[in-house]
Design goal:
Helices cover about 30% and strands about 35% of the residues. Strands 14, 15, 16, 17, 18, 19, 20 and 21 form an 8-stranded antiparallel beta sheet that branches. Strands 7, 8, 9, 10, 11, 12 and 13 form a 7-stranded antiparallel beta sheet that branches. A 6-stranded antiparallel beta sheet has the order 1-2-3-4-5-6, with no helix packed on it. The longest helix is centred in the middle third of the chain and has 20 residues. It is found in: Endoplasmic reticulum. This is Microsomal triglyceride transfer protein large subunit isoform X1.
Length: about 725
């Protein structure tokens, strides 16, 4: 009932918190608009750091007072809060609270009580009266008759077995389990971890770590023994879940820092710990925690790391951690390592620079990257030069930089000529930011002529749309670079999601191979004669770079793998990820509280493989992505006598395969790329419920299901022509 008779803004305390309120007064009426975004309350809550995966909230609170002869004749108030998932705004919920007061009559009140101050007068009226704060206080919810965490786990464990991970029941059960874990004690969580079957235990580790409570982190640290190399699978699942954490805190980073300082049984885990610490630094800095003591310690560790060791694997580990951290202070380090004699260092440094905002690409950085591409100081591997070209073209290139790139086409190794040509054409076709300056440079006939733009080869770069909607736009890009002998040098697949002004790098799978020319008695390309035989795979998932996987390293390892190749893909990432995580308590002006919870869970399985047949002179690389996604939103208003709420959700199961077949029996060799998505279902659900303390309840449900037809994603026409030849010849 706070009221001002003059137009203007004031700060008021009420049950919603300490808020800025705007008054508009006209004759006989005052409109009071509470600017809810300004309200400060004891309720904190949390939300996902990524806007693309996050939840958008809109709120309004308007109260209209009608006045007559100095009395309030009537009051009408309406408050609304709507929450929607950014990636699919039809998954939304709305709370509307209306209040109305009407003056019924006027009568004399009690006589005034004399006194020195208000407190003394209140005591004289009734000694039992006590002062209470006007701002709503935090209340811990109680659950009567709810199952224990162990009972809940027993009901869900079948859905979390590996065989069920590609079905929507897996992420739905994962989200249910997280809700239970967040209310459980450390001992209850440990009981579940110790009783889970070996097959379902990795999924329990995903759920416990993703819960991000003090009890869940303490339970994981007690359960895992990092000195034991046999526990690699569970340890890595814990670390990846930390990397994907929706709202990590300093304690989680401190736990990883302590692990890195202690004895670790597996070198793979040692690398993963440091790489994931970089991801946590990035997320904490995004929330304004860059100056926290632990963050400062880890920043010092990873910034000084590359120069503190001579071991190649450790330098790569620190560079990957810095790539995850996205620290502006790391730009000079990446600039230095871009010119390294070790190809792996250069590739990591250049791909890391590509992730930074163009404003951080100083003249010094640009000069270095151009030196690498144009080989001004030394000879570089093709994939390093290709990575340098990507940095130049994505960092607001100048007219001169673009012109020099165009002039280089024709003087590069065979396949790189074709790759660069394809890259330029893709930027123009897809209208990427660099397209304007490229068009300008191409007006010069020396840069743009038939001789330069008619180079043949099998390497390519192509971008396209996966999905376009009002909520989110998803794009993909495929870059493939071959050696002159026809063996894959680098394959890079990216998937991006964009919503409003936010961008998310959803997936990157890069397969790299080198030193395989000796298998087919071919001559290596310039600068690649002394390279050790190697093939490996690197994945970046939801902006988090994961530890790379090696298929083989060294000639003897290659030969043993050649004769034991089953064609079965090697697993890169498998598990359950909490993508969307939003929780808050909305304090309504009426005094009631609405509890809002939005969670999105993803079950994912990414694998990749490489086969080489010397008999058929054919190689095949594959990247297989399987996933199931569930997003749920629940808004509940809980009173002593009644409970009302609404739950919205959607779910889908999908798979995406990327296969490259190369026949290198002749030149130019035949290359066929296929990128297929299968037909997949999408289901939407809406449930409204009300229940009384007497036990009576009402529930209504609605659902909508649809099938999205499968398709093969379009690539360039040359690829379609080649695929016909490849499959005609293999037939």
């Amino acid at each position: 009932m706070q009221l001002q008779f003059n137009t203007g803004k004031v700060i008021e305390n009420d049950v919603s918190g300490r808020c800025t309120v705007e008054y508009k007064a006209v004759k006989g009426q005052v409109t009071r608009t509470k600017i809810l975004e300004t309200c400060k309350t004891p309720e904190t809550g949390f939300t996902t750091h990524s806007q693309v995966l996050g939840v958008r909230k809109k709120s309004s609170s308007v109260t209209t007072f009608t006045l007559e002869d100095g009395f309030i004749r009537s009051v009408s108030a309406e408050e609304t809060h709507s929450l929607a998932v950014n990636a699919r705004r039809c998954a939304a919920a709305k709370v509307i609270s209306r209040q109305s007061l009407t003056l019924v009559g006027v009568e004399a009140g009690p006589l005034e009580v004399p006194g020195k101050d208000v407190a003394g007068v209140v005591q004289s009226v009734d000694p039992k009266l006590a002062a209470l704060g006007i701002i709503g206080e935090k209340v811990k919810s109680r659950c009567k008759g709810c199952p224990s965490l162990f009972e809940h786990w027993q009901a869900l464990q079948k859905q979390l077995e590996p065989a069920s991970l590609s079905k929507a029941t897996a992420p739905r059960s994962f989200l249910d389990l997280i809700q239970s874990i967040r209310k459980a004690s450390k001992d209850e969580i440990l009981k579940v971890l110790k009783s889970a079957r070996k097959t379902s235990l990795p999924q329990v580790v995903d759920a416990v770590t993703s819960s991000q409570t003090v009890a869940s982190l303490d339970a994981m640290l007690e359960f895992l023994n990092f000195t034991d190399a046999k526990g690699l699978v569970l340890q890595e699942r814990f670390l990846y879940a930390c990397g994907f954490a929706s709202h990590p805190n300093e304690k989680m980073l401190k736990a990883l820092l302590d692990i890195s300082k202690g004895k670790i049984g597996s070198t793979d885990i040692k690398e993963s710990v440091v790489i994931i610490m970089g991801a946590l630094v990035h997320k904490l800095c995004q929330k304004g925690g860059c100056s926290l003591p632990t963050v400062e310690q880890v920043k010092k560790l990873i910034l000084e790391g590359p120069d503190s060791t001579q071991a190649e694997s450790e330098v790569q580990m620190y560079l990957l951690a810095l790539k995850n951290s996205m620290l502006p202070e790391a730009v000079p380090i990446f600039t230095k390592y871009a010119e390294s004699e070790v190809g792996a260092y250069s590739t990591i440094a250049l791909t890391a620079l590509q992730r930074y905002d163009a404003s951080l690409m100083t003249e010094e950085v640009k000069q270095t990257v151009n030196r690498v591409y144009h080989q001004n100081r030394r000879i570089y591997e093709k994939n390093v030069r290709a990575a340098a070209a990507d940095v130049i073209l994505s960092s607001n290139p100048s007219y001169t930089e673009v012109k020099n790139l165009l002039l280089s086409i024709g003087n590069l190794p065979h396949e790189m000529n074709k790759y660069m040509l394809s890259k330029i054409q893709d930027i123009l076709r897809f209208q990427l930011p660099a397209s304007k300056v490229i068009k300008q440079a191409m007006k010069d006939m020396i840069s743009h002529n038939y001789d330069r733009f008619s180079k043949v080869g099998s390497s390519s770069a192509y971008s396209g749309f996966m999905a376009q909607s009002a909520d989110v736009t998803s794009t993909y890009s495929l870059d493939i670079l071959y050696s002159g002998s026809g063996i894959l040098r680098r394959s890079n697949m990216n998937i991006y999601g964009a919503s409003k002004d936010a961008m998310l790098h959803g997936l990157q799978v890069a397969i790299e191979a080198q030193g395989l020319e000796s298998l087919i008695a071919a001559t290596p390309d310039e600068g690649e004669g002394d390279l050790e035989s190697f093939a490996g795979m690197s994945a970046l998932l939801f902006d988090v770079q994961l530890r790379p996987v090696t298929f083989f390293k060294g000639y003897s390892d290659l030969m043993s793998k050649m004769f034991s190749m089953t064609g079965e893909p090697m697993n890169v990432v498998k598990g359950l990820i909490l993508l969307t995580d939003h929780s808050e308590v909305i304090q309504l002006q009426s005094g009631l509280k609405a509890s809002a919870e939005f969670q999105g869970g993803l079950a994912i399985d990414i694998s990749g493989g490489m086969e080489i047949s010397l008999w058929y002179r054919e190689s095949k690389t594959s990247v297989n992505n399987r996933g199931a996604l569930v997003v749920t939103g629940n808004v509940t208003v809980d009173m002593d006598f009644m409970r009302a709420g609404v739950e919205v959700s959607f779910e889908t199961e999908a798979s995406l395969d990327f296969i490259t077949t190369v026949q290198f029996s002749e030149y130019p060799f035949l290359v066929c790329m296929q990128m297929d998505k299968t037909t997949f279902p999408v289901s939407e659900y809406l449930t409204k419920y009300e229940s009384l303390s007497s036990g009576k309840s009402v529930e209504s449900r609605k659902s909508k299901k649809m099938l999205v037809p499968g398709s093969e994603f379009p690539l360039h026409q040359e690829n379609s022509n080649m695929c016909k030849k490849v499959f005609d010849s293999s037939w």
